[in-house]
Batch of 4 targets.
Target 1
Amino acid sequence: MKLNEATAHEILELIRQEKATPQQAFDAVLDQVQAKDDHIRAYVRLFLNENRWDPATARVPIPIGIKDNICIKGEPTTCCSRILGGFKPPYDATVIEKLKKTGAMLVGSTNMDEFAFGSSTENSCYGPTRNPWDPGRVPGGSSGGSAAAVASDQAIWALGSDTGGSIRQPAAFCGVVGLKPTYGRVSRYGLVAFASSLDQIGPIAKDVQDAAMLLGIIAGYDERDSTSADVLVPDYTKALIKDVKGLKIGIPKEYFVAGIDPDVKEAIMAAIEVLRGKGAIFEDVSLPHTEYAIATYYIVATAEASSNLARYDGVQYGLRRQPPQVRKTPLIDMYEETRDLGFGNEAKRRIMLGTYSLSSGYYDDYYLKGLKVRTLIKQDFDRVFEKFDAIITPTAPTTAFKMGEKIADPLSMYLSDVYTISANLSGIPAISIPCGFSKEHLPIGLQILAKPFGEQMLFRIAYTYEQSTPWHKKRPPL
């Protein structure tokens, strides 16, 4: 087995036994990038001159890809948008500081939908990323580059961000593990904001153990993030036990309705039977406000996006453009020309949607009502978690769709996140793990949700299932 095909824990064991070095692991990953990424396009830039690790202090020298909306000091961070062209942050995001302290080796910035607006990684100013399992299909989004990099062995770990499913859905489409932590578990300092009350940074990895290791590195309180939770970070690897006997797991009836792909439903039901065979207790539950999740999300998220993206005006950093001829005043002309040229179509769409719902006369009817329904959705989960240890659902209603299939139909694209959005609205943790393949040999993802700060429960259930099945060992035939 080549080092780039190994998991992080396997590489660390080889290093401990002096059978491999961190540099050999990084070189193996870089060789794979150079051999395969012209076709996959998981990365938008590589950090070839980065000082990656100090052999005297490095504890976890693992090659990792970083989503292009996480700030790295002195390196371009563009959110895959023209409007941030040339921007180099003067500081590291908190998660990057933590990774550098452990000796993690930053491979490069991974591709994404512009400002995380999308579910396919087709809305990038650098062009789309392709799914390693089928290059004619999308890798999911918005963290599609991170998921594709891990799935194609071009990274051992990767970081993504999840606002409505942007870690879990691409993890499902690419056949890897993706975790959205509890809101506040991981610092957002240095994450370029999409929707500030929903965004979370999280790990994408080859197996559950790797995801637990990476979350343990990046989690923790940060006084620079006002939403960071001052909650003890446990050793997540201690939750990796093959034991779910007696655990009560809910199956929400609202997630198994018309629109779900038969192959996906069959794989999820088979996964439930595996866990039932290990002693887990399953019961049907109801999350009655699920049907309002999409509408609520696209009111709350776009309103916050409209506010957050107002700062990109060509004045302080990034793109600045003047029109060929002065139309009104030089300053207003510069604002309009910069934003028109800098933002892509999906970004403009979300800015307009959000601005409309925040505008005078519509605020109460849309944004305020959306916040109230968000509370009802959270209360649904609170009631279930009073009696159940976890909830199991599909990660996505379908497998990876074809490139170009939904790009011209925004509503259809938005519906691909129907099973993941509620976790963000509720602030709860959720993980996606591989649970099988469709008849077209495309990966299927199983989603597990737990109560706030219940990541240990997620890892326990996910690890038990993973170690009882072969799916996490499958790799795309590149």
Target 2
Amino acid sequence: MAYVRVDENEPLEKSIKKFKRLVEKEGIIREWKRREYFEKPSTIENRKKKALERKQMKKVRKMHSMKSY
């Protein structure tokens, strides 16, 4: 179940965007914005490589911040 806590000073549009991202992340609803057209296999591969790099960098940053304590 997806829910978003809304602060009193937070605009409604921002809350809706948060909820939408959360729902997409949990896989309840998927948006196919980027894949409405044909993608070359090399483009798909590059996109996956970049996503993997971002994931690894995030992991490195997280580990680095944990070591500083």
Target 3
Amino acid sequence: MDILLIGSRGREHALAIALKKDARVDNIFCIPGNGGLAGIAHCVKMSIDDHDSIIEFLDSNPNIKLTVVSPDEALAKGLTDKLMEKGHLAFGASALAAVMESNKTYSRDLCAKYNIPSPKYKVFNDYSKAKRYINTQPYPLVIKTNGRTAGKGIMFCRNIKEAENAMYDIMVAEMFGDAGKSIVVEEYIPGKIFTVMTFCDGNTILPMKAVNSYKRVFDNDMGMSTAGMGAVAPADEYTEEIEKMAMERIFIPTMNALNQEGRTFKGVLSFHLILTEEQELKVVDFTVRLCDAESQVIIPLLETPIFDILCAVIHQQLNEIELSWKDGTAVCVIMTSGGYPLEYSKNFKINIGEIDDDVMLYHAGTKLTDGELRTSGGRVMGICSLGADKQECADKIYENITKISFEGMHYRKDIARD
């Protein structure tokens, strides 16, 4: 059978590599794909927003038995729903369930309604009212766009001046367009941060390994928030006791709450968690898909066939699946274009030397032009290593990353070094 992947990031590359190892999978197609995926999948030049053309493509390729929809924008616009309505088996959250990422006000209100531990918050669509409010708040605090920004619309403000600048950039200068027409102002909670992606079919929720994610663009967690500059799995501090707390107080209650609201979740529901100094666990954000950098460390560690998991979620048979994992640690470092996550230039030649066999490259913003690999996005590629511990992985990555170059290349040098 054949499989179609929707997307063009590192997670699709990691998924394709995992699926290619499955003897049941013949061909992998990807819309639109990237320069790295072109080596193992048939990349189809088509917009992920062109739902009618995607359906026509599936109609004309009946051997494609499964489509995996990953991008949050495609999920929010209901691509999974449309494919299923047309008789095409598809993995990914419905548009109703995808609201957990596309509308932060909704997810915050859901947590408040069902007593799911989360930060105190207030929502504003009026700049003047928001400005008056932040003058009354203790610092630091967090300002977020209400809409989707691929992780970029989160501002950590140390003082009122930074908060005023962030609000102006979002609401007046419209840095993030319509996504910033309203904002969420949250209390800042110090603590240890984890990302836990889960497979969920509405009845059963299976957490993957916890990941330490590095979201800020510069070393020492400085600069703007991004979709992720690196990741380490598993997170050592995420103990069995903490996982039990997360399941009982956050994961299962969220799944049940969505069922109560008529928004049954079937797909990957990701929780961004903070463990406070008082050992309380709170959810500070949700995503409704495999996160990009996190996927690049989780998928290589996963031993359970990913195909079985995807099908079990769709058919609500996840209770029959047991997740098994390789021993050891995985580390990923993301290479970006200069200027990311703001403005950046594209179409620079990418030079890749002789990389060690046990180091993996996952492409995202790359393309092939006349057989030459070039940059095509802000997040260009991730470099990943598996090893006994994060120190071994980091050493291997930073030794090999010097063999890769393109104009303006940027990456953090402190991933897994803390």
Target 4
Amino acid sequence: MMEDYRKVFRDKRKKLGWSQYKLAKETGFAQSFINEIESGKKNPSLDGFFRICEALEIKVFPEEE
């Protein structure tokens, strides 16, 4: 079963020692929007999803072996 992307975002952000504010600055989003994504109140656009993945260095498509 796949893990919810919100949990992946939150866990990776915390692992990096980043606040929601830091992630917001890195992605160009408002801190309140990052909070709403992590809490499940809002969903990012596809572009926003990839921007967050890029900022957190999350590989969406792992390389094939």
